[in-house]
Design a protein that fits this description.
- The protein is mostly helical.
- It has 2 domains: 82 residues; 34 residues.
- It contains 4 helices and 3 strands, in the order βαββααα.
- α3 crosses α4.
């Protein structure tokens, strides 16, 4: 019976490539189904064999733990350099930031206007 190892919906291309390379490097016999264009089917990595599924799951868990640690270190380094948050976004693209704030305010005003006029 097939075993679903990982959902590919919203998975970045670099992560999917890393997992393919990891499975190929360790001779995991897997197959892949792509996610549908409209988001109906999720796609993913699959294996047929129970033993292969356990081995692939162990490899995948190790990879994901390593990726999480790496991404967390990168985020903490960006936080230490002050490259996160609203102020950073404003300094990077002030016009886009102000336009987004105005758009949000306009949508809120239009949504709440019927209730305010009661």
């Amino acid at each position: 019976m097939p075993h679903h190892l990982m959902n590919l919906r919203n998975v970045p291309d670099d992560e999917a490539e890393d997992i393919r390379a990891l499975f190929d490097e360790h001779d995991v016999r897997y197959y892949e189904t792509p996610p549908s264009r409209w988001g109906i089917s999720m796609g993913g990595f699959w294996v047929h064999d129970d033993d292969e599924a356990r081995r692939a799951r162990a490899l995948l868990d190790g990879y994901q733990a390593e990726r999480l640690a790496t991404r967390r270190r990168e985020y903490q380094a960006r936080c230490a350099r002050g490259e996160t948050g609203l102020w950073f976004q404003f300094r990077q693209r002030p016009v886009t930031f102000v336009a987004a704030v105005i758009a949000v305010a306009a949508i809120l005003a239009l949504s709440l206007l019927p209730f305010i006029r009661l």
